[in-house]
Amino acid sequence: MDVKRGYKNKMSNGVKKYLTSEGFEKLKKELEYLEKVKRKEISEMLRQAASEGDLSENAGYDAAKDKQGFVERRIRELKEIVAQAEVIEKKENGKVCLGSFVFLSSNEGKEKFQLVGPEEADILNNKISFKSPLGEALLNKRKGDILRVNVPDGKKEYEIEEIK
Fold it and tell me: 14, 56, 108, 161 - which has most CB atoms within 10 Å?
């Protein structure tokens, strides 16, 4: 794994967040959207609800405050991730590393995964964390290697068919 660039600010506690350039850009866009668009929408919702009178029994105001809390927490989380991000460039050395697409076969068929950092992991899109059991087993392996991974039902065996 080659580090392309690092981002640090006062929020960084020294824990690196490894991201693909695609994942880094996606998180930056989400942060920008929340800060520039969603905050304004919620502010308007709060203004509208407050104009309706008594705030102690105003469900619209309570809902808007809840949304505001969620958005502000997500903004803080994204700022921290971006501040601690190290964008990785995949090495072409024949080994599985962060950013690699790995094609596996098992008794259950063929599967394709991309190995990413925990912040990008999305099993519905076949992006698995390098910290997951399968991700840990895949790191630094080569085409043709056999992996045995602990799963809830016991052990599962995979063969690496291709690495891109």
Answer: 161
- Sorted by where each begins, the domain ranges of the chain are 2-88, 91-163
Q: List residues bridging with 86 in a β-sheet.
A: 6, 18
Strands 2-6 and 146-151: unpaired
Distance CA 134, CA 19 (A): 18
Confidence of residue 14 (pLDDT cuts 50, 70, 90): low
* pTM confidence score: 0.75
Give the mean model confidence (pLDDT) for residues 41-66.
Answer: 86
State the architecture of 91-163 in CATH terms: Roll (3.10)
Locate 2 and state its tokens.
């080659």
Laid out side by side, the sheet with 146-151 consists of: 127-129, 109-116, 101-106, 154-163, 146-151
DSSP 119-152: TT-BGGGTEEETTSHHHHHHTT-BTT-EEEEEET
Rounded distance between C-alpha atoms, residue 86 and residue 142, angstroms: 24
CB atoms within 10 A of CB 105: 14
